[in-house]
Write a structure and sequence with these properties.
Layout (H helix, E strand, L loop, with lengths): L1 H32 L8 E7 L1 E6 L2 E16 L4 E6 L6 E2 L4 E5 L2 H30 L4 H27 L1 E3 L4 E4 L8 E2 L4 E17 L1 H6 L5 E5 L7 E8 L9 E8 L11 E6 L4 E8 L10 E7 L2 E12 L3 E6 L6 E5 L10 E3 L2
Parallel strand pairs: 1-20
Antiparallel strand pairs: 1-19, 2-15, 3-10, 3-14, 4-6, 4-9, 5-8, 6-7, 8-10, 10-13, 11-12, 11-14, 12-13, 15-18, 16-17, 16-19, 17-18
Helix pairs in contact: 2-3
Length: about 350
């Protein structure tokens, strides 16, 4: 009996130990199943929002292009019998650059002239015969109408003959000749390209704030890495309507008659010198968080990162004006933002 009691006690003890082990294992499994909470503090650098001055001048780059540029094309069809130009030639306004075969039109012109002469003789004869009663006024009127019709036809042929001589519309340089002597050209065939580089233009696109400051006739400065000295230009046009990206097309023109002429297609900087200096809230450019729809920053508030939407104004290479969303004295985070989200615990490194 005593041995039996001892055996039962040992069994109960083993069951109790197994229960404790199982309970401990369950607790470990439950703890492992719970999501880990990261209470780590992220080190960042911050900058105080301050009042600063902003120069309202700005620089926009663009590409030079000729103010006057045209493709010289044929207005009639015919065989090219004379070509007076080659690539690189300088021509003057009205100068004949090519001639098409006008022999067909010359034959038509000779035939029309003969018909006009005959109609004039008929008119004179009818005028004399009317006085003698040998012709009617209707016959005379018919001869007069025939002469007018022939003269109109002659004018059309003369216009065609004049178009057989292809002329330069303005003075400039010949480039990209597309035809050869003896080739047949039709209406609209491009013979060559004519460029006048004495004046150049630069088409640029301004933001809403920049376009508001730019005025037609305003003087600007143009620089380029290929220029020894800056050039002075003028704003000749500011578009009244923004494009799909919200930019306003603006045209800058300048004289290019110096000894060292610029070429078209060169990248240049246009400097808009504004005389006024503006003051406003300033933060470093490094504080900005890239976003397609809105501009954001993180603000350090009681060792917590607070995401803030802001509105910006004038921007330079290292600082940007804040129009709305921040107050003077607040701390914007300028380093470590990639690891942050709204509400992250932070420590500011001095």
């Amino acid at each position: 009996m005593k041995k039996k009691m001892i055996s039962i006690g040992i069994s109960l003890a083993i069951v109790a130990v197994i229960g404790v082990v199982l309970a401990n294992n369950k607790a470990k499994i439950d703890n492992a199943a719970k999501p880990a909470t990261d209470h780590s503090v992220i080190p960042v650098k911050a900058h105080e929002v301050k009042i600063d001055s902003f120069n309202t001048s700005f620089v926009i780059n663009g590409t030079t292009a000729p103010v006057k540029e045209v493709k010289i094309a044929s207005e009639v069809q015919g065989k090219l019998v004379r070509l007076f130009i080659k690539n690189g030639d300088m021509v003057k306004a009205g100068q004949v650059v090519a001639v098409l075969d006008a022999s067909v039109y010359n034959v038509q012109l000779a035939s029309i002239d003969a018909s006009i002469a005959k109609a004039q003789l008929d008119l004179a004869r009818y005028s004399n015969l009317i006085e003698l009663g040998g012709a009617t006024p209707m016959q005379k009127e018919g001869a007069e109408l025939q002469i007018k019709s022939l003269q109109a036809e002659k004018k059309q042929v003369l216009d065609q003959i004049s178009h057989m001589q292809i002329r330069a519309p303005f003075s400039g340089k010949v480039e990209n000749i597309n035809v050869e002597l003896g080739s047949f050209v039709t209406y609209g065939t491009v013979l060559t390209q004519l460029i006048d580089n004495s004046s150049l233009k630069i088409n640029i696109y301004l933001s809403e704030q920049e376009a508001f400051k730019a005025k037609k006739g305003q003087t600007v400065t143009i620089t380029s890495v290929v220029m020894d000295q800056p050039k002075t230009g003028k704003i000749t046009m500011v578009s009244d309507k923004a494009d799909a990206s919200g930019k306003f097309l603006t045209e800058i023109s300048f004289s290019n008659t110096d000894k060292a002429q610029l070429k078209a297609g060169i990248l240049a900087d246009v400097h808009f010198p504004m005389e006024s200096v503006k003051t406003g809230l300033s933060i470093p450019v490094s504080a900005l968080i890239a976003n397609a729809k809105e501009t954001k920053v993180f603000v350090a508030v009681n060792n917590v990162a607070e995401e803030r939407i802001i509105k910006t104004g004038i921007a330079t290479s290292n600082k940007v004006e804040v129009v709305d969303g921040l107050q003077e004295g607040e701390q914007v985070i300028i380093s470590g933002q990639l690891s942050l989200e709204n509400g992250s615990a932070i420590s500011i490194n001095k």
